[in-house]
């Protein structure tokens, strides 16, 4: 995400390379390039100008320490200002009331229904809640079916009244149903239109008045840029929503909406949503987003995603096998499955500081592990458990079964053995002592 903006900002910082200090003269072209980069990213010119004026004032007021360069100092100042522009700190969802009512609003096509399913999954798996999804879109029959499919996938009940054309009644009946079935969060998916119209606004305002939600989340397609900000203003004037959700951040987004929506409507971005998978929903952290925009990576989110797949009992068994040099192909395949659950592979690599630029032009498919899995699946149970028994003739058979060349199998076997040796060394120096290493790592993740 934000590749173009990241590149332009990086180019702007390079203009200070070789400078011994920051001055009015050498900072002028840098600030001008930053402003251009923001405007090209669909940031309103007035906001971009105000932003760069703040950056310039701070930069000229800072002393450049001997340990850092003017370019590094500028990166820090821009990062701090980006964090401030996007809200400073994360905004938590208000789910203390029982039951909590969350109203979902936005235009048709913004991803409201998919987000509703993702939010229900998030609250169920991460917050131990018992959510109820409510299909209150009375104009789009497919919306009810879509919500039911999503609910089935995540094991969450969906309340609907397909014949009822009164959204307020549906919402009120759903709350009664939730109270009698011990649902502690009610997520109401409302109707949208292709453009803002009075009927839609009146209807969603009436639902709000009837159910008095603790949260009103405005869902907006971040790919629509400045239009998203203008739509947010119109909705906020009628609904006074409590937070924004940015969807489709994995698309060809220029970043304008993410950077300026908080400034414009004075409401926090609470979630960012990427892709169709129901576990691809992240709490919005301004600092992490600023780091990613500036190519610094996002190691905290990467660790959190890894932690979500972390199984302590499984890790203990794995550590024991590594310690006894018994790590086999079944263990390796299991680790691959956990990595795949963490999300898009290219996105994950981009979270590692310094790696984002290296992989930005690479076409890294989520099927990148398919060839390796095919080779492991072509092995017998005994071969997977004892890699050392795989001789030349067995390798030929594995290659044929996986639809690969013998060179592919040889290379994979060599890399696997190198990885086993590395794990053995890591265990010897840092992971020994009855699981202390893994426990320490888990402590770092908290």
TrEMBL record:
It comes from the Bacteria. Its EC number is 3.6.5.4. GTP binds at residues 106-113, 189-193, 247-250. One of its GO terms (molecular function) is GTP binding. PROSITE patterns: SRP54. Gene3D superfamilies: P-loop containing nucleotide triphosphate hydrolases (3.40.50.300), Signal recognition particle SRP54, nucleotide-binding domain (1.20.120.140), Signal recognition particle, SRP54 subunit, M-domain (1.10.260.30). SUPFAM superfamilies: P-loop containing nucleoside triphosphate hydrolases (SSF52540), Signal peptide-binding domain (SSF47446). GO terms for cellular component: signal recognition particle. GO terms for biological process: SRP-dependent cotranslational protein targeting to membrane. It is an enzyme of class 3 (hydrolase). InterPro entries: AAA+_ATPase (IPR003593), P-loop_NTPase (IPR027417), Signal_recog_part_SRP54_M_sf (IPR036891), Signal_recog_particl_SRP54_hlx (IPR013822), Signal_recog_particle_SRP54_M (IPR004125), SRP (IPR004780), SRP54 (IPR022941), SRP54_GTPase_dom (IPR000897). Keywords: Cytoplasm, GTP-binding, Hydrolase, Nucleotide-binding, Ribonucleoprotein, RNA-binding, Signal recognition particle. Its main location: cytoplasm. Belongs to the GTP-binding SRP family. SRP54 subfamily. Involved in targeting and insertion of nascent membrane proteins into the cytoplasmic membrane. Binds to the hydrophobic signal sequence of the ribosome-nascent chain (RNC) as it emerges from the ribosomes. The SRP-RNC complex is then targeted to the cytoplasmic membrane where it interacts with the SRP receptor FtsY. HAMAP family: SRP54 (MF_00306). NCBIfam families: ffh. Part of the signal recognition particle protein translocation system, which is composed of SRP and FtsY. This is Signal recognition particle protein.
């Amino acid at each position: 995400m934000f590749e173009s903006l990241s590149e332009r900002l990086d180019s702007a910082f390079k203009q200070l390379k070789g400078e011994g200090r920051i001055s009015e003269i050498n900072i002028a072209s840098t600030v001008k390039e930053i402003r251009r980069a923001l405007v090209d990213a669909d940031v309103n010119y007035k906001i971009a100008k105000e932003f760069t004026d703040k950056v310039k004032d701070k930069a000229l007021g800072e002393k450049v320490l001997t340990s850092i360069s003017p370019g590094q100092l500028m990166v820090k100042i821009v990062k701090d200002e980006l964090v401030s522009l996007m809200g400073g700190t994360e905004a938590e969802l208000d789910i203390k009331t029982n039951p909590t009512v969350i109203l979902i609003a936005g235009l048709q096509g913004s991803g409201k229904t998919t987000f509703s399913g993702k939010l229900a999954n998030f609250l169920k798996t991460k917050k131990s809640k018992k959510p109820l999804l409510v299909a209150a879109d009375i104009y789009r029959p497919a919306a009810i079916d879509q919500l039911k499919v999503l609910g089935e996938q995540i094991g969450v009940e969906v309340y609907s009244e397909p014949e009822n054309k009164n959204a307020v009644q549906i919402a009120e009946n759903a709350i009664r149903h939730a109270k009698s079935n011990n649902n502690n969060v009610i997520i109401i998916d409302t109707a949208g239109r292709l453009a803002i119209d009075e009927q839609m606004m009146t209807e969603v305002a009436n639902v709000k008045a009837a159910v008095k939600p603790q949260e009103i989340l405005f869902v907006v397609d971040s790919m629509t840029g400045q239009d998203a900000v203008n739509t947010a203003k119109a909705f906020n004037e009628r609904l006074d929503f409590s937070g924004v959700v940015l969807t489709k951040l994995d698309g060809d987004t220029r970043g304008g909406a993410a950077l300026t929506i908080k400034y414009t409507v004075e409401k926090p971005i609470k979630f960012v949503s990427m892709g169709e998978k129901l576990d691809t929903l992240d709490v919005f952290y301004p600092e992490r987003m600023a780091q990613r925009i500036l190519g610094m990576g996002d190691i905290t989110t990467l660790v959190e995603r890894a932690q979500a797949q972390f199984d302590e009992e499984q890790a203990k068994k794995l550590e024991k096998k590594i310690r006894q040099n018994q790590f086999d192909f079944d263990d390796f395949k299991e680790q691959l499955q956990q990595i795949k659950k963490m999300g898009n592979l290219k996105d994950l690599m981009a979270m590692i500081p310094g790696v984002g630029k290296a992989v930005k032009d690479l076409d890294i498919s989520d099927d990148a592990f398919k060839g390796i899995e095919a080779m492991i699946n072509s092995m017998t149970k005994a071969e997977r458990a004892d890699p050392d028994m795989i001789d030349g003739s067995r390798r030929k058979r594995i290659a044929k079964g996986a639809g690969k060349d013998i060179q592919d199998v040889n290379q994979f076997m060599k890399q696997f053995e190198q990885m086993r040796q590395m794990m053995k060394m890591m265990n010897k120096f840092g992971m020994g002592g009855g699981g202390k290493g893994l426990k320490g790592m888990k402590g770092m993740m908290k």
